[in-house]
């Protein structure tokens, strides 16, 4: 199979869809790999490393899309890439279609095979290709939140860990999944007071157990959310419904009641966000203020630590890339149920129900 790795063009995106060792393994397996010039530079990989791995460098993005049977990248295609996509071409990347109707319609029109990293799902419900980026985003959310709380950053001037004789800051985390657990780990490590809310009691019991009572667990409901958010110094949105749009758990009225100089970091922003007042931002201008509350809505948080993210992402995605290349699309998804759940669009049909429901589009079951 011919695999193409284009340079990411989303603003502030420095990750790359495949690192040189992955390209080398594909070439050794008999496949052809085309990498766009400087695609890996943002993650610290020179073109020469890809050439040494056996890949070929193309000068243009068109050179990648024109040749490739499968496109492997990090973020969803932008509008200027839509016309580059070809019928029957496999697109393997993060898609987040439930919050992107224009992109969904474009993929349907181009009749591509869109496999979304974020909906590949194991039998136990975990999302193996989302997990490494969720781990990074959860940890980064606390790191950036602590920085934004500094007075010079526009925050309230609270040190999350406090000092002896001074109460530490309060961190409220909405969602106890991978993002939430990693955010809790970082916040507890800094010495903050941490409360995590989730709708799953078993998950709350698990978090209570692994953190040895160093955080407070609460059932996620409107009353608890409002009370906790209005007391928080830092709120982290970590809600995920696989493939679906995130629900607005924090309303604009709740934001108005928050402390002056408090900070919101909504990791769920690429799925529409779980805070009503959040909107997408980018690394070069990541924040804005509403009702005295600093909002951080960067849609590709792991892109800010691209080197770490590129390794972590490829570690997770490469086995699936290799399977698709070795077996071809249809045989691969027949043999691998988690990979089959990643298929969102297939040759003009929308085959992922949560996306269809979110966008009010026709759903067509995937037949393999």
How would you sum up this structure, described in words?
This protein is α/β, with parallel strands linked by helices and 368 residues long. It folds into two domains: 2-120 and 306-359, NAD(P)-binding Rossmann-like Domain (Rossmann fold); 131-299, NAD(P)-binding Rossmann-like Domain (Rossmann fold, 3-Layer(aba) Sandwich), CATH 3.40.50.720. It has helices at 20-28, 47-52, 61-67, 101-110, 131-148, 178-190, 201-210, 222-231, 252-256, 306-327, 329-335, 337-340, 353-359, and strands spanning 2-5, 32-36, 56-58, 70-72, 90-93, 113-116, 170-174, 193-198, 216-219, 234-237, 263-266, 287-290, 293-296, 343-346, 349-350. An eight-stranded mixed β-sheet has the order 3-2-1-4-5-6-14-15, with helices on both faces. Strands 9-8-7-10-11-13-12 form a seven-stranded mixed β-sheet, with helices on both faces. Helix 7 links the parallel strand 8 (193-198) and strand 9 (216-219). Helix 5 packs parallel to helix 6.
CATH architecture of the largest domain: 3-Layer(aba) Sandwich
How far apart the termini lie comes to 20 Å
Kindly report the spatial arrangement of strands forming the biggest sheet: 3-2-1-4-5-6-14-15
Question: Could you give me the name of the CATH homologous superfamily of the largest domain?
Answer: NAD(P)-binding Rossmann-like Domain
Shape field:
globular
Write down the CATH class of the largest domain.
Alpha Beta
**What percent of residues are in strands?**
15-25%
- Which percent range fits the helix content? 25-40%
Mean pLDDT: 96
Rg: 21 Å
Order of helices and strands: EHEHEHEEHEHEHEHEHEHEEEHHHEEH
* Unreliable residue stretches: none
* Helix-strand makeup class: alpha/beta
Count the strands?
15
């Amino acid at each position: 199979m011919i695999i193409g790795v284009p340079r990411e063009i989303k603003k502030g995106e420095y990750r790359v869809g495949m690192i040189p060792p992955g390209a080398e393994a594909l070439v050794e397996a008999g496949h052809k790999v085309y990498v766009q010039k400087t695609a890996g530079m943002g993650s610290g990989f020179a073109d020469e490393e890809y050439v040494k791995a056996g890949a070929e460098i193309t000068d243009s993005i068109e050179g990648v899309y024109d040749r490739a049977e499968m496109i492997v990248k990090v973020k969803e295609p932008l509008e200027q890439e839509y016309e580059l996509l070809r019928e029957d071409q496999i697109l393997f990347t993060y898609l987040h279609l439930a919050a992107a109707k224009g992109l969904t319609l474009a993929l349907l029109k181009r009749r591509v095979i869109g496999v979304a990293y974020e909906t590949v799902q194991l039998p136990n419900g975990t999302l193996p290709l989302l997990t490494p980026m969720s781990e990074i985003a959860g940890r980064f959310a606390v790191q950036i939140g602590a920085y934004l709380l500094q007075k010079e950053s526009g925050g309230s001037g609270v040190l999350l860990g406090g000092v002896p004789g001074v109460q530490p800051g309060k961190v409220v985390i909405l969602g106890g999944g991978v993002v939430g657990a990693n955010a809790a780990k970082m916040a507890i490590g800094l010495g903050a007071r941490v409360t995590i809310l989730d709708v799953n009691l078993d998950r709350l019991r698990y978090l209570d157990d692994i953190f040895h009572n160093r955080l407070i667990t609460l059932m996620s409901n409107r009353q608890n959310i409002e009370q906790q958010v209005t007391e928080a110094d830092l709120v982290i949105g970590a809600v995920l419904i696989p493939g679906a749009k995130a629900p607005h758990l924090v309303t604009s009225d709740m934001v108005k009641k928050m402390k002056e100089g408090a900070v919101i970091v909504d990791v769920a922003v690429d799925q529409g966000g779980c805070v009503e007042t959040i909107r997408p931002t980018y690394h070069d201008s990541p924040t804005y203020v509403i009702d005295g509350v600093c909002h951080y809505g960067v849609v590709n948080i792991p892109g800010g630590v691209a080197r770490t993210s590129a390794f972590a992402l490829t570690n997770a995605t490469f086995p699936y890339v290799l399977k698709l290349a070795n077996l071809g699309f249809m045989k691969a998804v027949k043999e691998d149920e988690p990979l089959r759940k990643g298929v969102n669009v297939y040759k003009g049909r929308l085959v992922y129900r949560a996306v269809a429901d979110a966008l009010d589009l026709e759903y067509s079951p995937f037949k393999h």
